[in-house]
Description:
By secondary structure, this protein is of the alpha/beta class.
Amino acid sequence: MSVVEEARAIAAPAASSVGRRRTGEVVLEVKNISLAFGGVKALTDISFDVREHEVRAIIGPNGAGKSSMLNCINGVYAPQQGSISLRGRTFAHMNSRQVAEMGVARTFQNLALFKGMSVLDNIMSGRSLKMRTNVFQQALRNPWFGAAEREEIAHRAVVERIIDFLEIQAHRKTPVGRLPYGLQKRVDLGRALAMEPQMLLLDEPMAGMNIEEKQDMSRFILDVNDEYGTTIVLIEHDMGVVMDISDRVVVLDYGRKIGDGTPDEVRANPEVIAAYLGTAH
């Protein structure tokens, strides 16, 4: 039984197969994106779309441009050509804060957690965009000016639900730096979920994990997609995971798109086999 098959066996019945998902209209459309750093072309004329509620994977060898593509989507990089449409609004260059305000959250390949802070406080930091009280109101903190206290209680309630969802209750007060790597990855996912995103960009969420940790993370990704209805764009090197949990897969190689379709279609694509999966003997 594969890692993902085991994850599905543990997950809710609704997550029993990829075909369970009812994908909707296009919510993200990438058109003719090209990105270069000096004379180095990271992306060349890349186009694809993402449908609501689907798990959309981006795969390719190291240096194929996968993370650069995510960085264009969430505004870290400004492409020299092309456009990105998010829920009907078209941008030549996305602004990171604007993207977050439009309901897109991101995890990164290299963890950027606050290692000395607790699990709860790290996930709480993901609520910053939702906070409405100002510094003056937060400083008052007395019964006559209770807006900050009421807001903090509401935000903590959201965070506690995420901690329960990710099954890390026993670690809620533990400094993140003391946790095993797999649990730190789970906290990173929790911080992204704290933004209550409509779309979640995951950059190699299972990198460096053992089989058990991958099983857990696969289950949580399926549950986020099923229970929260979150659209997921996923970069991952474990092909077994990608092919099992994805609705559609786009394949990059040296910054160019060489494949796009369902997992079965991608598996059968000769260019993908040669460039990424290895030539069959």
